[in-house]
Design a protein that fits this description.
Oligomer: single chain
CATH class: Alpha Beta
Shape: globular
Structural class: alpha/beta
Number of strands: 4
Radius of gyration: 18 Å
Bound molecules: zinc ion
Number of helices: 10
CATH topology: Rossmann fold
CATH superfamily: Creatininase
Length: about 250
């Protein structure tokens, strides 16, 4: 049987035994339930959060994956039906209490893996208090959205890709990654070009403007030309970058 790392698919005795055998790192996907264009499922950030987390757990060798926090701060996407959002304050409390549960079991390393840019405010609000409450535990989290964006732009240039097309939401980047792991949730016949201009106002504003004002399709980027092969490369890079940053201790604040 293939090795299981997803806690929600394991029994509690499996989790206990895996921890006793040395799996003391737990990855928490901090995701979202928001529109991803006319061509892709609303759960995209949650599915991608799980995919990256599972690959990361296996790459680390001592990791398990907690149930995802599947609803995030997605207020700007609410004009599109099906999107579900909670406030940053609520999300910060959920993050804190999920970590409280995992710490009580004896995990020594908690990795908060956000697959949705809108969650950074809540992570930044929750993480300092967690580190203070649990000095015996290492709480790893990316907290700087802007530096993540810069690193990503550099990677895309290296891969000879156009950042405007890859996009930041439901464009070639996310669409390709979904084609690599959940092709059944993507309809390439409905993949269109979205807004390809400067979308940074969306993450520079405390409350992002309604997505309908920036992109009526809900896409930031261009979903056309997405391929599973590109998605596989992006996923592999993302996982390698997490492994590198974790091993270097870069995500400890
Ligand atoms: Zn997304």
């Amino acid at each position: 049987m293939p090795e299981e790392v997803l806690i929600e698919r394991m029994t509690w005795t499996d989790v206990r035994d895996a921890m006793a055998a040395g799996k003391r790192t737990v990855i928490v996907p901090v995701a979202a339930m928001e529109q991803h264009g006319p061509h892709m499922a609303i759960g995209t950030d949650t599915y991608l959060g799980y995919e990256i987390s599972v690959r990361l757990a296996k790459a680390l060798g001592d990791g398990l994956v907690a149930p995802a926090i599947g609803i995030g701060y997605s207020v700007g996407h609410l004009p599109m039906p099906g999107t579900v959002s909670i406030s940053e304050e609520t999300l910060a409390i959920v993050i804190r209490e999920v970590v409280d549960s995992l710490v009580s079991h004896g995990f020594t390393d908690i990795v908060l893996l956000s697959s949705h840019g809108g969650n950074y405010g809540a992570l930044n609000a929750a993480v300092p208090g967690l580190r203070e409450a649990y000095p015996q535990v290492r709480v790893h989290s990316r907290t700087d959205f802007e530096s993540g964006m810069r690193r990503r732009q550099a990677l895309l240039r290296e891969l000879d890709l156009d950042p405007a097309r890859v996009g930041v939401h439901a464009g070639q980047g996310e669409t390709s990654m979904m084609l690599a792991c959940h092709p059944d949730l993507v309809d390439m016949e409905r993949a269109v070009e979205g807004f390809t201009g400067d979308a940074s106002i969306r993450w520079r504003s405390k409350v992002p403007p309604p997505m309908t004002e920036t992109s009526p399709t809900g896409i930031l980027g261009d979903a056309r030309g997405s391929t599973a092969e590109l998605g596989e490369r992006l996923l592999a890079h993302e996982v390698a970058e997490w492994v590198r940053a974790l091993r270097a201790g870069e995500l400890l604040g």
